[in-house]
From TrEMBL, chain A:
TM ranges: 12-41, 91-110, 116-137, 146-164, 197-215, 236-259, 279-311, 323-343
Membrane topology reported for the UniProt record: Multi-pass membrane protein
Name of protein: Simple sugar transport system permease protein
Gene Ontology molecular function terms on file: transmembrane transporter activity
Organism domain of life: Bacteria
Predominant subcellular localization, coarse grouping: membrane
Gene Ontology CC annotation, any one: plasma membrane
Keywords for this protein: Cell membrane, Membrane, Sugar transport, Transmembrane, Transmembrane helix, Transport
Alphabetical list of InterPro entries matching this protein: ABC_transp_permease
TrEMBL record, chain B:
InterPro entries linked to this entry: AAA+_ATPase, ABC_carbohydrate_import_ATPase, ABC_transporter-like_ATP-bd, ABC_transporter-like_CS, P-loop_NTPase
Subcellular location: Cell membrane
Stored Pfam families: ABC_tran (PF00005)
Bilayer topology: Peripheral membrane protein
Organism: Kaistia hirudinis
Major location category of this protein: membrane
Annotated GO MF terms: ATP binding; ATP hydrolysis activity
Family: Belongs to the ABC transporter superfamily.
Protein name: Simple sugar transport system ATP-binding protein
Domain ABC transporter per the UniProt entry, residue ranges: 6-241, 257-500
Alphabetized UniProt keyword annotations: ATP-binding, Cell membrane, Membrane, Nucleotide-binding, Repeat, Sugar transport, Translocase, Transport
GO CC, any one term: plasma membrane
Thylakoid listed as a keyword: no
Length: 349, 504
């Protein structure tokens, strides 16, 4: 048996691959659910109800989708140019911290309409700067950014921990380690009243569309893709690889930082060290599920959020541990990789 | 040639609509050195993969030493004494030679490798066939030629009596190739039966006993090497008369490209030292040399990728201050890189993207940061039409093009803008005869139109056919130029060996 590269991947196959992958993952996870002694279809029905069964659950699912779109885009943009940014988690936290600090009573005190965009930019900038360090090390000394971005996550989270135990600690939090909160009028407007869903979702979707346009239509998009696919040929053609990758890193780190900023402004209002249930790492999965396509990221983020929110509902109703969501998401990444292989290659005997 | 080592009978293999092998019948005598000649895509590699059991034929059979082999079983082929050396070696770079040779022959349960017995056998094989290589060297440290010897030893160690080599000289230098063929000849004389796949006519004529020509998946001819000649084989292979085009005399114009005592250093090593040359408009300067003597650096220098450590490079009488690929493109330098897959094109991108990437900054292809896809596609379509690029349209992924068509695309994107200087590094490396003729015709047409051509090549025939003057490159130094009319093989050989005073 051998694999042969397909000359053209038909559109039907390109769409069927992720759907097939998700179905396969659900079937495999179904085995585990059955092992837990629970009827599988009922469990999945409960999951769907948990994610979409009520106005509240829909708003929760979409609230969870928002940061995943942004961290998913952060990974997708970087991976497309072969910048292996595994540090979205750390960038998320630094973005969140910068936003909370500047938006609190210690901060800027501007009119909300002016300050909110500034706070978002500040968060993005903090994330972007954190990614510039490993990229600079790679360009100058060839240091592998997989290692440096990954390890910087721990540095960033410990730094956040130090700040919220120290100078940025909220004195009114009964000794809990959390940052000073943002001023009440800095909170993002809600999309739905009496829910946690905020306009950050629109920002995330808008950015996905903008990125799609940048990648497919601009000179920068073309050169960034060339630099990723074949740096040597890109250099021969005169693509300024260093400056292209710096811009890619600024966008990628910026998106992850923005995710942190929006989570603070839209949902939490302050920073704790459990602000993110692994949004940065999950963003990598979202990007892979989406085949690094910015529009696909929206769909993949929605899928992953559905699994997490739905699994909570399933867990409450059926007693299956909600960790099943982690299993499904992890399985779907594996099945997606297999599906991509099958879509791009033909199996021959 | 009494016993038959190998018999292929009526082999047919289809891939979808494509018939890769069509009723191929072929025999190999014991102790025979057979060449399988054909253009890229003629079905040579498919046939050898069927023979070795990597593919299963749709019909037909393979027999070794009179016994029919079960289809699709490489292990049966190995046991029958067939060994295969692939174009891309299957060696573990971090293991030693001896470990590579014995890997896969030991039983899985064995706790320690029985290296001592292996060493004795390997030494005997090396001795017998003249395949010298240090058994304890790490394969990653070996040259390409040495790695190939390891591959051959690997097959011999498994008691191969029939050896199949797929394009064995594609990655070798001229000297290494000659050495390989001497070795193969010696092996055949000792009773081994050998098939090698090639599309290089001179090799086939010089090395083989017998030549089988494959075209469009069919055997079209079979000749004794002594009874045929280059022209006949070329015609059989391509299916029509191919004459490599000729250069006409013409008077060159002003100096377009000039290097004055240019040196390039990198990390303490001297890549080019004191190199001087000049190329006039409407003239071709050929730079010959054995691979690895600084040709790459020379090509990169005149493509704007590296800058000199000392000396100056003049374009149209002005020294270049800023070395950048796009700067050179803007000044009218057309650039054919020596490795079209690594430097020349990005396989995963479309033809139009590859056509415009090096001039994406020009107004007609981008404005305000946006790519103007209409004009870019039209530019690619024009290249495809004028330079006869076959295998796809502007939106086809470039990796789907054959080597020759990819080279025509690269040539086309440069020549369509009528460059004043053309730097062509190894422009026909790995191309088949038909594509070589097409590339040569385009380079000659550019020269006729007044382009100054710098041709860097290891192919002496090519340089003699295209160049007006020749310089040799040896260890980063350039010989003084000689007119091509004075370039006989002996003199070129001396120049390439660095003895240009004797050559003068």
């Amino acid at each position: 048996m051998r694999l042969e590269r397909r000359a053209h991947v038909p559109l039907s196959l390109a769409i069927a691959a992720p759907i097939g992958a998700v179905v396969a993952a659900l079937i495999l996870a179904g085995l585990l659910i059955a092992l837990a002694g629970v009827p599988v279809f009922e469990a999945y029905r409960r999951m769907l109800i948990g994610a979409f069964g009520s106005r509240l659950s829909i708003s929760e699912t979409l609230t969870r989708t928002t940061p995943l779109i942004l961290t998913g885009l952060a990974a997708a943009v970087a991976f497309r140019s072969r910048v292996w940014n595994i540090g979205a988690e750390g960038q998320f936290y630094l973005g969140a911290l910068a936003t909370a600090a500047l938006g609190s009573k210690l901060g800027l005190h501007l009119a909300p309409l002016v300050e909110i965009p500034i706070l978002m930019l500040a968060g993005a900038l903090a994330g972007a700067l954190l990614l510039l360090v490993p990229l600079g090390l790679r360009l100058k000394f060839g240091v592998d950014e997989v290692v440096t971005t990954l390890l910087l996550n721990f540095v960033a989270v410990l730094f956040v921990s130090m700040m919220i135990e120290g100078p940025l600690k909220d004195p009114l939090a009964f000794g809990w380690p959390q940052s000073v909160p943002i001023l009440a009028d800095m909170a993002l407007p809600k999309l739905l009243p009496r829910s946690r869903l905020h306009i950050g979702l629109l920002v995330a979707i808008g950015l996905a569309l903008v990125l799609y346009f940048i990648q497919s239509r601009t000179r920068f998009g073309l050169e960034a893709r060339a630099a990723g696919l074949n740096p040597q040929a890109a250099r021969f053609a005169g693509v300024p690889i260093g400056s292209i990758l710096v811009r890619v890193a600024l966008i990628s780190g910026g998106l992850a930082g923005l995710a942190g900023a929006i989570e603070v402004l839209g949902v939490k209002g302050y920073v704790t060290t459990d602000l993110s249930p692994g949004f940065g790492y999950t963003g990598v999965v979202v990007a892979m599920l989406a085949g690094l396509n910015p529009i696909g990221v929206i769909v993949a983020a929605l899928f992953v959020a559905t699994m997490f929110v739905g699994a909570d509902g399933m867990s409450r109703a059926m007693g299956v541990p909600s960790f099943i969501a982690d299993v499904i998401v992890a399985l779907s990444l594996l099945t997606m990789l297999v599906a991509l292989l099958l879509a791009n290659y033909r199996v021959r005997r | 040639m009494s016993a038959r080592a190998l018999e292929l009978n009526g082999i047919t293999k289809r891939f979808g609509a494509l018939v890769a092998n069509d009723d191929v019948t072929l025999t190999l005598g014991q102790g025979e050195l057979l060449a399988l000649l054909g253009e890229n895509g003629a079905g040579k590699t498919t046939l050898m993969n069927i023979l070795f059991g990597h593919y299963t034929a749709d019909s037909g059979s393979v027999a070794a030493f009179g016994r029919t082999l079960p289809p699709g079983k490489p292990r049966a082929a190995i046991e029958a004494g067939i060994g295969m050396v692939h174009q891309h070696f299957a060696l573990a770079a971090n293991l030693s030679v001896i470990e590579n040779v014995i890997a896969g022959t030991e039983r899985l349960g064995a706790l320690a490798l029985n290296k001592r017995a292996a060493r004795v056998k390997l030494a005997a094989l090396s001795e017998r066939f003249g395949l010298t290589v240090d058994p304890d060297a790490r394969v990653g440290d070996l040259s390409v030629g040495e790695r190939q010897r390891v591959e051959i030893l690997k097959s011999l160690y498994r008691d191969a009596r029939v050896l199949i080599l797929d394009e064995p000289t594609a990655v070798l230098t001229h000297q290494e190739a000659e050495r390989l063929y001497r070795t193969l000849r010696g092996m055949a004389e000792q009773g081994l039966s050998i098939i090698f796949i090639s599309h290089k006519l001179h090799e086939v004529l010089a090395a083989a006993d017998r030549v089988v020509v494959l075209r469009g998946g069919k055997v079209v001819a079979e000749r004794k090497a002594g009874d045929t000649n280059r022209e006949e084989l070329a015609e059989l292979m391509v299916g029509r008369r191919v004459a490599r085009p000729h250069r006409d005399a013409q008077t060159p114009g002003a100096v377009a490209l000039k290097a004055d005592r240019v040196s390039v250093m990198s990390g303490g090593a001297s890549l080019l030292s004191d190199v001087s040359f000049e190329v006039r408009a409407g003239e071709t300067l050929g730079v010959i040399g054995v691979s690895g003597n600084g040709q790459s650096t020379l090509g990169r220098l005149v493509s704007g990728l590296v800058s000199p450590s000392s000396g100056s490079l003049d374009l149209f009488g002005h020294p270049v201050a800023q070395f950048s690929p796009r700067g050179f493109v803007e000044m009218g330098v057309g650039r054919i890189p020596e490795d079209r897959n690594a430097d020349g094109a990005i396989g995963e991108m479309t033809i139009w993207e590859n056509a415009v990437l090096e001039r994406i900054g020009e107004k007609r292809f981008s404005s305000g940061g946006l790519v103007r896809r209409g004009p870019a596609r039209a530019f690619a379509a024009e290249i495809i039409r004028r330079f006869d690029v076959r295998g796809g349209g502007p939106d086809t992924a470039t990796r789907l093009l054959s080597g020759g068509n990819m080279q025509k695309l690269i040539l086309g994107r440069n020549l369509i803008t009528a460059p004043k200087i053309l730097v062509a590094a190894q422009p026909t490396r790995g191309l088949d005869e038909g594509a070589v003729a097409a590339v040569h015709a385009e380079i000659l047409a550019a020269r006729r139109a007044g382009t100054a051509v710098l041709l860097i090549s290891e192919d002496l025939d090519e340089v003699v056919a295209l160049a007006d003057r020749v310089q040799a490159i040896v260890k980063g130094r350039l010989s003084p130029p000689i007119p091509v009319s004075d370039a006989d093989p002996r003199r070129l050989g001396l120049m390439m060996a660095g003895a240009w005073d004797e050559a003068a």
